[in-house]
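Document type: protein sequence-to-structure record

Subject area: structural biology

Format: plain text, a pair of labelled lines:
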Amino acid sequence: MHQLLPETGRRARPAARLNILRIVWNVLVVGAIMATLFTTWTPLGLIPFGLTEQLAGLFNAEEQANPLVFPTATPRPRPRLGIVAGHYQNDSGAQCADGLTEADLNLEIATQVRDLLIGEGFDVDLLSEFDDRLQGYRALALVSIHADTCDFISNDATGYKIAPALGTFFPEKANRLVACLRSRYETATGLPFHAGSITRDMTNYHAFDEIHNETTAVIIETGFMNLDRQILTQGQAKVAQGIAAGILCYLYNEDASQ
């Protein structure tokens, strides 16, 4: 039943209510459009003073309260090795009549060994004979490179020899390094192992008492500067490769019999 209007007694028409709703809707839409246009076209200078700074301050405060923290990558330390160039920066070592010295020979070979191992991703220290860094030196392995006399002893005075540092917590590691060096050095150079001439100077090598007792160490005599002179001077790449391969054999736990 339709309601009567109080003044006239006529029924209220539904169309009048719809017109009122349309007017209200149009006002809201127009207001929203004008507000958008005003915000878009209003120069910054017309915005109330300090409002921009206040808004920026709110955002900055939020960032400071909850900063984005990214983890910092920590570089992994690379394995360290030590190569001693025998007699380097101390004396000449063995010397030949034509001026060839053991110290120069050792340095050239040791430098090549260092470069080969660096190429394999290791940090390598090239050390002199009585290097201050040898005191308490810690590394995965240390190899001291020497050569034998230039004097002619006999036709049997040819080949290489190796002695390990046995005064260590892990003598089995030193023996394994010897085995690896023998295997790889002999393959690379073709020189025989001259076991009969290992001296006390090798077994009691001074650096063995200076380095940290967890550092695996050996001393190698690469050959005799008389009968093995050709490979020691002209085939140094093979000599260095044999030493480097022996060290890698030890580090990578390869089969030392090959």
Observations:
- The helical segments are 14-41, 51-65, 102-119, 171-189, 200-203, 206-210, 229-234, 236-251.
- The longest helix spans residues 14-41.
- The beta strands are 80-85, 123-127, 141-148, 161-164, 216-224.
- The CA atoms of residues 64 and 71 lie 17 Å apart.
